[in-house]
Amino acid sequence: MVNHFQYRDGVLCAEEVRLDELARAVGTPFYCYSTATLERHFKVFAGALPPGSLIAYAVKANDNLAVLKTLAKLGAGADVVSGGELAKALAAGIPAGKIVFSGVGKTKAEMRAALDAGIHQFNVESEPELAALNEVALAMGKRAAISLRINPDVDAKTHAKINTGKAETKFGIPFVHAREAYAHAATLAGIEIVGVDVHIGSQITDLDPFEAAFTRIGELIASLRADGHAISRLDCGGGLGVPYFHHNSPPPDPTAYGAMVTRVTKDFGCRLSFEPGRLIAANAGILVSEVIYVKRGDAKTFLIIDAGMNDLIRPAMYDAWHEIVAVQEPAPGSPRPLYDVVGPVCETSDLFAAARPLPDLKSGDLVAILSAGAYGAVMAGDYNARPRVPEVLVSGGQWGIVRPRESHADLIAKDRIPDWLSG
Ligand SMILES: *Cc1c(COP(=O)(O)O)cnc(C)c1O
Hints:
Blueprint: E1 5-8, E2 11-14, E3 17-18, H1 19-26, E4 30-34, H2 35-48, E5 54-58, H3 65-73, E6 77-80, H4 83-91, E7 99-101, H5 108-117, E8 121-124, H6 127-139, E9 144-151, E10 173-174, H7 178-185, E11 191-197, H8 207-226, E12 233-235, H9 254-265, E13 271-274, H10 278-281, E14 285-296, E15 301-305, H11 314-318, E16 324-326, E17 338-342, E18 351-357, E19 366-369, E20 391-395, E21 398-403, H12 408-413
Helix pairs in contact: 2-9, 5-6, 8-9
């Protein structure tokens, strides 16, 4: 979808904020998010879906409170996968009644917190989880509203590490066992069956696997009703892919996705919910970094930047492709030599891009790694004792630091020295 990172007067801007000036103010590297882009993505998606649908933003894509608050103001709910995400969603003002709890390993403490808050529903992924939830709910004198996450056994044709809809992944209850799982759930006094949930993976760029999954689930809903269950909700999951190539039109367009969902589910008689993460956040964020050195080897030229794989792990973990641009707009027709863009971390996989054509760059120049708003800062760590980088949210001409940079003192303060080593 459209984003609001564009060149103005020869400098890359986030909305109306110049990134060179922002870099001077906050230092590098830093994540920068655009409010207008988040809002646009949410509204385009919401506008494509059947009216009344719940959009439970997948908090794991970007859980910054300011991002959550921006989405909460638009009416977003949240899809959470941990007690921590539940706490953050509530703290950001997302109503409990719009929160869905997903994930294969919910603990009883997390279930208690969610029941206490009064969330919309649990997406239950296994029989043992169902038993635990029943026990927790009964002990609290409550009934937990649930959908079972059904694994439709379709191939989402995405990267293996984010493909979750095949029979051999750890996610969901196998399609062939769905009816017996619902029959069992119906016997549990602490459980209230409300619907069915399906999520087949992430960064899916083809509508066919979604359509195949929703069609199979539609058949299941009919048989579950025939079995006597009250199925009033269908959670369609997330997973819609985004273009990682700048200026590309998205594959598939959210409008096409919405039209397909509307067509396939029109006779299901269910209120729909969706759990988009990447679609909302990915192209609403960038990682700005400074060139430390240009190292000319015999075979290659390395652009060594001050961001590393600890700040943005997607290229190392998923072989993800991110567009990289110079913050200073290159003159039209200027040469584009090839660089291997690498970070300072002592790992060969600390590589953002191989043989990438970029303008002539030198030490001190700024680059922006695009489409870094989802699965970026949330997956960052402090490997190589590299402090976590700050996150900045822009809105029009305003900007605010929404997560400060960690200092070396912060890093040191995280550890403790046991008695026998102190003194
Ligand atoms: C990760 C995840 C999502 C979000 O996936 P995106 O690809 O970011 O849209 C939604 N639902 C569940 C259950 C997930 O695990």
